[in-house]
């Protein structure tokens, strides 16, 4: 059944995030032949519309306002409700990002609709659009369908492949004028403290440290390796509780659930709560002094050894490989 | 200050998940307060101690959640309310839960509502923002700091590792992120006192709701376990050779670098 589906693109530092292209692919599946309409908010975003279309959107609607430069729940929901009012979609797809998680439930409540969060796969099965999502932090999976009303979902970064970019694709980029007013949240300051550049939830490579890292400085060799691989640094709860790093890096049942292509676990024993957060990564490498460590049970490749000896060698080896590549 | 905490009873994080006849097997499993809701309870108690008022912990579920509500009372909450949906809701979703909570809260003249940012079982993180929208109050999710002065709240929100300092006003709903505080363990006197604190139980009927009003908009059709991972390869030999081999495997075999 063809349906019109909106996809909210997410702009960070002037570019569309990768998850937005993945969301377009998910929208395309959801639309079942219907129209996919990209939606972009910001102070100046219409230039990004063309790229959104090259990744599969049929056309793009923008709302531009100085007050939409930074995400606030009030600002973005006013803008989105105006677009929904204009477009009357039958489906909506967001990325399951900080922004998507914050905004989608509110919009769903407003529209009295269901919402399927954190989707890792979707397909048409027996006439139904079926969404797969992890539960119990990835210890199990459930398949869900929408039984009433709008088809609304947020998709987890890194799981649904984006469509191939087609530079010959063109479409209409139109702007909708919305009066953004009475924002109840005012952002006073943004403090960036994550490892520069790559975000954990979107990282293709994660180098994570546990208690075996031993100190804050102990994370340095992990950072160096992550830099070489263009990845992000993560941590187990043990490392966070011991104050070696910030809780924002925590991966596990409490903390972030991640699914990178490559997960390198350094000095992490592999408690069940940690495994829940990372065991669905494509390839897992474990580096641990203890050959009996639980982490080796989920690892594709393991090195029994001291991470402080292994990591510098590994960083050097990858550097050479990537220089030659 | 009139403070409400939204609490969910969940599986202990230690539990392995098994499935029997298509459902998550709960036999013999330990249950706990959802860990993020513990931060919420702790924060509510701290705000009350600083500003006065009362903390009420509310949970939508079955009578089994009484145990976790008692624990919340033992931590220091003043009152607990169980909205027992056992007889009325067979398979609810987040639409269901938030509608029930909002109906319950709408005439309570709340100043502050705190919940966990996500439950570690369902993992959708929807109920907080949904309830705020239904009550038409502002909300801020994944907070790591909360300061209240008069009716102004200054909140630090975790945004994928970055921190936003946001100013907003009461009444307000916030959801707790790890790092917000260090939840206390119930003390023995706390546990004794909790036995005498009010724990009310109500049903949908008491909220003038019937099953149709809260009927789920989504449905789970299948639950499965992730494919079992085969034991991997532990490398051997000189460390330098192991590292070379590993890089080769990741590049040529796994093709992830």
Automatic annotation (TrEMBL), chain A:
Residues 5-191 form the Electron transfer flavoprotein alpha/beta-subunit N-terminal domain. CDD domains: ETF_alpha (cd01715). It comes from the Bacteria. The keyword Flavoprotein applies. Keywords: Electron transport, FAD, Flavoprotein, Transport. SUPFAM superfamilies: Adenine nucleotide alpha hydrolases-like (SSF52402), DHS-like NAD/FAD-binding domain (SSF52467). The keyword Translocase does not apply. PROSITE patterns: ETF_ALPHA. Pfam families: ETF, ETF_alpha. Belongs to the ETF alpha-subunit/FixB family. PANTHER family: ELECTRON TRANSFER FLAVOPROTEIN ALPHA, ELECTRON TRANSFER FLAVOPROTEIN SUBUNIT ALPHA, MITOCHONDRIAL. This is Electron transfer flavoprotein subunit alpha/FixB family protein. It comes from Cytobacillus stercorigallinarum.
From TrEMBL, chain B:
Belongs to the ETF beta-subunit/FixA family. Heterodimer of an alpha and a beta subunit. PANTHER family: ELECTRON TRANSFER FLAVOPROTEIN BETA-SUBUNIT, ELECTRON TRANSFER FLAVOPROTEIN SUBUNIT BETA. It comes from Cytobacillus stercorigallinarum. Keywords: Electron transport, Transport. Gene3D superfamilies: HUPs. This is Electron transfer flavoprotein subunit beta. It comes from the Bacteria. InterPro entries: ET-Flavoprotein_bsu_CS, ETF_a/b_N, ETF_b, ETF_beta_N, Rossmann-like_a/b/a_fold.
